[in-house]
Amino acid sequence: MSKPVKAKQLMKILEKLGFKGIRITGSHHRFVHSDGRKTSVPVHVSEPIGKGLLNKIIKKDVRISKKEFEELLKQLILF
Q: 28 forms bridges with which residues in the sheet?
C-alpha cells in the first residue's frame, strides 16, 4: 500500500465487508462482524491510519489479505 489510508476509507471498507459500527468512545470507532470479528478504528481527521496499525487491522482483525484490501480500496476510490 503506497498511499496512506484515511479512517473514513477504512470504515467504508469495513462496512462493505459486513462490519457494523457498535459504539464510539472518544475518537475510536468500534466495529463488529456477525461472525465475531472485532476491530477499532482511531478517527483523527488530519492523520492517516499508521502502517503498523493498518496491517494489524487487515491481517488479525478483519482477516483478509493485503491484496484483497488493496482491491477494495481501489473500488472505493473509483466510486
A: 25, 42
Mean pLDDT over 17-41 rounds to: 97
DSSP SS3 for 37: coil
Question: Domain residue spans in the chain?
Answer: 7-78
Residue 11 pLDDT more than 70?
A: yes
CB 72 within 8 A of CB 11: no
Is domain 7-78 given the CATH code 3.30.920.30 in the classification?
yes
**Residue 47 Cα distances to 4, 15, 16, 38, angstroms:** 9, 21, 22, 22
| pLDDT higher than 80, residue 44 | yes
pTM over 0.90: yes
